[in-house]
Amino acid sequence: MSVQRAVTSVRLQVAYAGEQGIDPAACLAGSEIPPEMLNRADATIHAEQEMQVVENLCRHLDDPVRHGLAMGQRYHLSSYGVWGFALLSSPTFRQAIELGVRYLDLTFAFLDIRLEEEDGEAVLILDDETLPETVRP
Questions:
Q1: Would you give per-residue pLDDT tens digits along the chain (137 residues)?
Q2: Are residues 115 and 101 in contact, defined by beta-carbon separation less than 8 angstroms?
Q3: Which residue segment(s) compose the domain that 35 sits in?
């Protein structure tokens, strides 16, 4: 998980947590992400730092599943920068999926995501086996 990623996802998570009454310091605890970094458009962090924020949120939110779904609705293709633009520019849905899977390192995903095809059917697999148990829900 040592891939560098934009701080955008953490910014969205901290904003959502604030709406739930959770202090930004509690969200960022142990992540080594200074609060002022959230305002820098060019800031990057390590995936491990973001995972620490996710773990903090799971500890502080009463229902991680409900909150995870609500928070996920805030992620739009524009949140992903060039990756999202590339998906929007794909001529077909299939090409968008293939491109998206190929360049997963440009996303905020922690899951193992892969496309499998068999007998003319395509299945997008979202595998959470590598995630800590505390954040799987």
A1: 467 899 999 999 999 999 999 999 999 999 999 999 999 989 999 999 999 999 999 999 989 889 989 988 998 888 888 899 999 999 999 899 999 999 988 888 888 889 899 898 989 899 999 999 888 88
A2: yes
A3: 4-127
Distances (CA, A) of 129 to 65, 80, 122, 125: 17, 24, 21, 12
User: H or E element: which one contains 97?
Assistant: helix 93-102
| pTM for the whole structure | 0.86
Residue 135 domain-assigned?
Answer: no
Tokens of 50: 């973001």
Domain-embedded: residue 136: no
Distance (Å, whole) CA 97 – CA 132:
26
- Tokens 């496309």 correspond to 115
133 lies in some domain: no
Other Cβ atoms less than 10 A from the Cβ of 36: the count is 8
